[in-house]
Input
Amino acid sequence: MDNPVIEIGFTTFPEQHTCDGEDSSPEIRISGLKSPYFAIILTDPGAKVDHWLIWNIKATDVVPAGIPKTAEVHAPIAARQGRNDLGKIGYSGPCLPKGSAHEYYFNIYGTDGPLDLPGGAGAAELKEALKKHAVQYSGTAVAGYRKD
Output
């Protein structure tokens, strides 16, 4: 599989993208994506927690910031979002206790078409669907967060 390049514009999460701020999803720039659709999974591998599950995004160079926290998204892009490991639909940014630091990985999976998966599905269901339909992968966008 060819790897697209993803850029998030920071290496440390700005407060606005954490629970200490607005907890809004960041803008994501993608280049080299050759598949018609893609999915994003934001994960904290140290805690083994998936913070964001979004799929059925039509190929684009930019996923805008501030995606609504709904299972079915119609604007600013069309997509479906799942229930993350924190029990919430949509994006949940870093939310750490004082004195903690974690790294977060934005993983993009190019898919051969839209996934037949309802909004609100969990990580296990999305990952199972990706096993059958992912044709590209990139796990290169990494950002940290520390709460002092």
